[in-house]
Specification:
Order of helices and strands: HHHHHHHHEHEE
Oligomer: single chain
Structural class: mainly alpha
Length: about 250
């Protein structure tokens, strides 16, 4: 009997895989195959949960929240507009229609930028949106380059305010824009040159050799400090000429 037991133990030592599997099965220990399948199932569950979390995060990013920060940045935007209009633009131009255009452009650009900053849109939709904006053209007669510059300033302020930078950074940027606009649109650094179109009837003075006499006559008639002029057109049937005069405004 002892010899048989020794032979049996020797066979078990020669087959370690089967012995371990049988021993694990006897003691209720799971085999390697069952453990690998369970690990794979746990990994798949973790991947699914991560995907769900990512989808939830994307939904949260796509939602537009009207919170206290929205009204804070909108208030900063409107405050900058009010300062530029009341301190710089209106005292020098006094055009109510332009102020309405500036305000509406600024507010709409602020709203669109705020929404587009939160919502993900495709490249085609973005190009389509900019194509629509490029088709909008204002055909206001007599709009000056100065008004177009102010329009660009108000659009830029609305765009910068809607990006939601740090509040201190936004205040510094808007303050710099306000100060530069005030300095350049005043007589502190540059002389403010204005222009007007007039119809002139003394066509004999339009000749190039009578340029000095024409300039002096224009100064006496208009009472303006005209420093240069430009002859736009001449009508010999009516003996009139269209002249554009340039003059410096007096400091107030």
């Amino acid at each position: 009997m002892t010899n048989i037991k020794m032979i049996f133990l020797f066979l078990l030592l020669l087959c370690p895989g089967t012995s371990t599997i049988q021993s694990k099965a006897q003691f209720g220990i799971p085999s390697d195959q069952t453990t690998t399948t369970q690990v794979d199932e746990n990994n798949e569950k973790e991947k699914k949960s991560e995907k769900k979390k990512e989808k939830e995060k994307d939904k949260e990013k796509d939602t537009v929240e009207i919170n206290a920060n929205f009204f804070l940045y909108l208030g900063m935007n409107l405050l900058t507009l009010a300062l530029i209009i009341s301190l710089v633009y209106y005292p020098r131009n006094r055009q109510y229609e332009s102020i309405f255009t500036f305000l509406m452009f600024n507010i709409m650009i602020f709203m669109l930028t705020f929404v587009l900053n939160k919502i993900k849109i495709s490249v085609g939709a973005a190009f389509g949106l900019f194509a629509v904006f490029s088709m909008l053209r204002y055909r206001t007669e007599g709009i000056s380059m100065k008004d177009m510059t102010y329009l660009f300033i108000f659009i830029a302020i609305g765009l910068i305010s809607a990006i939601q930078l740090d509040f201190e950074e936004l205040a510094i940027i808007n303050g710099i824009i306000l100060v530069i606009t005030f300095l350049l649109d005043s007589n502190l650094i540059l002389k403010r040159e204005s222009s007007k179109m007039i119809r002139y009837e003394n066509i004999d003075l339009v000749k190039p050799e009578n340029s000095a006499d024409l300039l002096e006559d224009l100064r006496q008639r208009t009472g303006l400090k005209i420093h240069r002029h430009q002859i736009v057109s001449m009508n010999f049937q009516n003996d009139t000429a269209e002249i554009k005069i340039y003059y410096y405004e007096n400091k107030k």
